[in-house]
Design a protein that fits this description.
Elements: H1 14-26, H2 33-47, H3 57-73, H4 77-87, H5 96-105, H6 109-121, H7 146-158, H8 162-173, H9 183-199, E1 207-210, E2 216-219, H10 229-238, H11 256-268, H12 276-295, H13 308-344, H14 347-371, E3 379-381, H15 382-399, H16 405-411, E4 414-415, E5 424-426, E6 443-444, H17 449-465, H18 469-482, H19 529-550, H20 557-574, H21 580-598, H22 607-614, H23 618-621, H24 624-635, H25 641-649, H26 656-668, H27 672-684, H28 689-703, H29 705-717, H30 733-737
Parallel strand pairs: 4-6
Antiparallel strand pairs: 1-2, 3-5
Length: 776
């Protein structure tokens, strides 16, 4: 044991020593290491006292806990582990929380999970060395400690077991025990719970349910988080443009991390919601950005200043340091604010987003250059490296089609074996990251599983456009391998292995390869087996497109695509209804891609497209947008005509999405007056949000342009969708046109020969650094 007994004068009784300890505790400052060290030594002296005058067991237990927590505050985590293992016979003990937390801080997540599991399920197999791994799916939730549950949930997040972590967070937030959580604790839990959901997000599809009229309704998935009162209040208070034009702090968010995570979740799950939610996310991020930059405003500090000159120097240095902290806090918020603008669309929004990403990339590169002089080791947070990578990826998305594919591929981040389980990047000489494949590449370090999957997907798409068969197949091999890895295990140095930098061999290696080989692959395992299968099917889709575009004779692209669809069909026969949505959604993606590839743009026969829509899974086929598109195709078909269209439209039901789809159909058929009447009713009822109003403006532009302009003015003033009319950004015509209104197919889905099917479209949200794990 490295701790020495405290030097004492005359021998004190344990009561007197405990009284002195109590005095120290009452005046202790967590930031004062000297005081904490004194407390630690006093506790150690009491615990190691060999005299007959020893405290009772109940007092000893309290002293031991104080001692261990003092060690934790001094960052002596290994000392905590050694003491507890030497004191207790097994892992099921009264100081399990301190033991688990110390394992967590040392990034020994497997060991931390063992401690948490044993103590939370009342199962013990004895000493650590005799412990055998247990399946965390058997977790029964018999909590001994809320703090231990918090550590367990965060550990599962680090291990990539996000589904189990989600369950623990749900239990914690729904805990009805007598120990009531305060608002701050609830907000921290919500922030971590959202970070967990964001890290491994995959769209899980939809389901359809019969309505009272015999039709079908589109049922959007809902989670326990979306029903939380704190989050709903946050959306109500900050989900719209601020009307405060002054610089006061009346509308600042104290917990801007929570707003940031909620906004990021809304952006990632955009396909599940109306486009108005992107505007809500944008407003949340604007409030969070303002709060981050304001809360860390410089304050004067004249301590240790003996002259006016020194006082001025101190003030300038304090100001500089606080501005750096504020900007570092605001950087990921600004990155996702740029993402919200990208999702809203429009040239102005895209230009704003590009400026933001270029600023972030340049700022990080300059910082790295400043720190990374010759012979110096650079150490930066994984959050900063992750932000650099996602900014570079999204720049590639923006530049795709505007510069050569070879230049775009250089912007894409190279996946690294570093994941959310790793907190720091350590670079070698000259500031070059060891996990980087070249001096120009950007490693995706500190990455969440969702970020890794998207980065690999984008790289494969670009290799398809380059007709780089080797590079694409190697990237897809890394992607497929990563879908089965959630954590590399305690003690594995992932920094020494890069899946996109193969081991050197004596033979020649083709350029562009990114083979996984025997190296450590990135961790990107989805939250469920169904989601793994869905991502494998997407990889098969890309592989089939590679062989189609490259005109390779090695494999038939049709066989690959049909094989992927057959695998999904087999899984759907075996899978339960809880996870079938993601499989049906993915199958629909593959079927529509197949129809696009086989479609002849010059043909006037739309029957193959109608057949393709009819072949979609029922949960997709019953969505209003699909029904309306099918009706539009039927109306343009010489075989079926308008009668079939009316029959299809009658099945839409009376929901808002159904009415919007019906209005779009009527506009497609030139029935603008009927479309206006339908949309006017929706808007007058206050339903439909900005989508209904945008579509009404479009319909009125054919029948009553003056009235259309009135609604445009309301949109600009922010009256629609929660704004109050005195501030905030003015919505321009491009933003209005980009609203997510159901669109109709003309006579083809897309040109198979245009290359549009392989355009890089997947953007990455910044998610790093906003989840925390605290003791107690």
């Amino acid at each position: 044991m490295s701790t020495a007994a405290a030097e004492t004068g005359p021998s004190l009784t344990w009561q007197e020593s405990l009284s002195e300890l109590s005095t120290l505790l009452s005046s202790a400052d967590d930031n004062n290491k000297a005081t904490i060290s004194t407390i630690e030594k006093s506790c150690y002296a009491l615990l190691t006292n060999t005299n007959d005058d020893t405290p009772p067991q109940s007092a000893t237990d309290v002293i031991r806990t104080i001692y261990l927590r003092s060690l934790i505050k001094l960052n002596k985590y290994q000392t905590v582990i050694d003491y507890i293992i030497n004191t207790y016979e097994d892992l099921d003990n009264s100081n399990a929380e301190e033991l688990a937390y110390s394992f967590y801080r040392l990034k020994k997540y497997d060991e931390c999970r063992k401690v948490c599991y044993i103590n939370l399920t009342n199962e013990s197999d004895g000493p650590l060395l005799n412990y055998h791994n247990k399946d965390s799916d058997n977790y029964v939730g018999e909590s001994k400690s809320r703090g231990l549950k918090c550590i367990y949930a965060q550990t599962l997040y680090r291990l990539g077991e996000t589904s189990q972590a989600d369950t623990i967070y749900q239990e914690l937030l729904n805990d009805n025990s007598t120990l009531v959580m305060d608002v701050d604790e609830q907000e921290d839990l919500l922030s971590n719970a959202l970070a967990n959901k964001i890290s491994n997000y995959t769209y899980k599809g939809t389901s359809s349910v019969a309505n009272s009229s015999g039709g079908s309704e589109y049922e959007k998935p809902s989670t326990w988080l979306e029903d939380n009162e704190i989050l709903q209040q946050l959306l109500t208070s900050y989900g719209h443009q601020s009307t405060n034009t002054n610089n006061n702090t009346s509308d600042l968010l104290q917990n801007y991390d929570l707003a940031y995570n909620l906004a990021t979740y809304l952006l990632l799950s955009k396909v599940e919601r109306p486009t108005s939610n992107i505007l809500i996310a944008k407003s949340l991020l604007e409030h969070a950005e303002k709060s981050a930059l304001t809360i860390f405003q410089p304050t004067s500090s004249t301590e240790d200043a003996s002259t006016p000159e020194e006082e001025k120097i101190n003030e300038e240095e304090t100001k500089r340091q606080q501005q750096l902290v504020a900007q570092r806090e605001a950087n990921p918020i600004q990155a996702n604010l740029a993402l919200s603008k990208l999702l809203l669309g429009g040239t102005s929004n895209e230009n704003d987003a590009m400026r933001t990403y270029l600023t972030l990339v340049t700022k990080f590169a300059m910082s790295k250059k400043t720190k990374g002089g010759k012979g110096n080791a650079v150490s930066s947070t994984a959050g900063e490296g992750n932000l650099m990578a996602i900014s570079s990826n999204n720049l590639a998305v923006l530049r795709d089609g505007k510069e050569s594919v070879f230049d775009v591929v250089k912007r894409l981040p190279t996946t690294s074996s570093l994941s959310v389980s790793d907190d720091n990047i350590t670079s070698g000489k000259g500031g070059k990251d060891k996990s980087s494949t070249s001096s120009n590449s950007v490693p995706l370090v500190g990455a969440t599983p969702q970020q890794v999957r998207v980065a690999l997907y984008n790289r494969a798409v670009l290799y398809i456009k380059m007709k780089n068969v080797t590079g694409c197949l190697d990237t897809l091999r890394v992607l497929r391998s990563s879908l089965h890895v959630s954590y590399h295990g305690d003690g594995i140095d992932t920094k020494k292995a890069d899946p996109q930098s193969p081991k050197k061999s004596k033979g020649k290696k083709k350029k562009g390869a990114a083979a996984a080989g025997d190296n450590v692959v990135p961790t990107a395992k989805p939250a469920s087996d169904a989601e793994i299968l869905a991502w494998e099917a997407r990889a098969d889709l890309l592989e089939s497109e590679l062989y189609r575009i490259s005109e390779s004779k090695d494999k038939s692209y049709e066989d690959i695509l049909n094989g992927a669809i057959d695998k999904l069909d087999k899984a759907l026969l075996e899978d339960d209804t809880d996870t079938s949505g993601v499989l049906e959604f993915t199958k629909a993606q593959l079927l529509l891609h197949k129809a696009m590839v086989n479609n002849n743009p010059s043909s006037k026969d739309v029957q193959p497209l109608i057949d393709a829509l009819d072949s979609l899974p029922s949960s997709i086929k019953s969505c209003p947008g699909v029904i309306a598109t099918s009706a539009s195709l039927h109306a343009s078909s010489n075989k079926s005509g308008g009668e079939s269209s009316e029959q299809l439209l009658s099945s839409l039901g009376d929901t808002i999405p159904a009415k919007l789809a019906m209005a779009e159909y009527k506009m497609e058929q030139g029935q603008h007056d009927e479309a206006v009447e339908l949309l006017q009713g929706i808007v007058d009822e206050g339903s439909g949000g900005i989508e209904a109003t945008a579509l009404l403006v479009k319909a009125l532009s054919y029948t009553d342009p003056t009235k259309a302009e009135e609604y445009v003015e309301e949109l600009q003033l922010g009256v629609i969708g929660g704004g109050s009319g005195n501030g905030g950004d003015v919505m321009d015509g491009e933003a209005l046109e980009s609203m997510d209104i159901p669109r109709f197919a003309k006579k083809e889905l897309s040109s198979a020969s245009s290359g549009s099917s392989t355009k890089v479209r997947k953007m990455i949200a910044a998610t790093g650094g906003k989840g925390r794990s605290n003791m107690g």
